[in-house]
Amino acid sequence: MTKRRDFLKLSALAGAAALTPSACKIETPGERPAKSKKSIKPIVISTWQHGMAANKAAWDILVNKGAALDAVEAGVRVTESDPLSTSVGFGGLPDRDGKVTLDACIMDHKNQCGAVAFLQDIENPISVARKVMEDTPHVMLVGEGALQFALEKGFPHKNLLTDKAEKAWKEWLKKSNYQPVINRENHDTIGMLAIDANGNLAGACTTSGMAYKLHGRVGDSPIIGAGLFVDNEVGAACATGVGEAVIRTAGSAIIVEMMRNGMSPAAACKEAVLRVMKKHSDLKNLQVGFLALNRNGEYGAYSIYKGFNFALRTDTEESLVNAKFELTNA
Ligand code: ASP
To answer: Is the pTM of this model over 0.70?
Structure first.
């Protein structure tokens, strides 16, 4: 817990330092006032510090009046392809059998969605998820079937286990202590939400899941309604943290419903966090963070423990924002 909080603090500072002072600031609490419909401008937000680079790719599309769907796909692909990111795509930490298995989903403004889970050997699962959405009558493909589909669609086969990740896994094997604690494993999904110039929303969520998980384990990230949910009439939400807890509470779906009933994104994220806390008696190491955006461009975030942050990009801002939280110590 402490280790990871320190890591987050440091990485947030490092990320901020890479940007010019005028373009970037770290702030709290991660909310902004409502704007009138007329003034809606493109916006992209995404989880964690790796969202800064991902947002740049998304922003290039949004600023050129591209679709939010294209933006979120292009954005999270950056993180998926980054070998230094040990929690998403290529370079992700493997399961306890040494296999990198990926989960991802994508959703557009028409409630169309696609997902892949337990997918191996494909660098960009988010693009496979999009193909599931666009080229099949289904929503989700998993495992061997998802791989077969990806290869048929021309995605290249690639070994995703980097030397760095393999070394970490071998180190873990020495004790093989099966305690997949998210905070200790420094494990962070990228979830991204965007509004384009037409006012349409889309979202994407992609991860290599919990490090050293059981082979076959699937988390919340590819599950529509848990790791991600988008409803163009209302807004969108995504999740990071212990996937099992997010699935148990249908995290992203309930946030969108709360926003539909009038809550702000920030208030809805907080309420969802409180729901997760209420439904779990043991909160030790149970980190969950939610991020939400409504159709007016208001956004908010909230987590159980301190340390969750998100990247924000608008026409006037590029920043890493610290989310509000419920608890300071595990
Ligand atoms: N939610 C992801 C999972 O449970 C992990 C994370 O976001 O850190 O697989």
So the answer is: yes
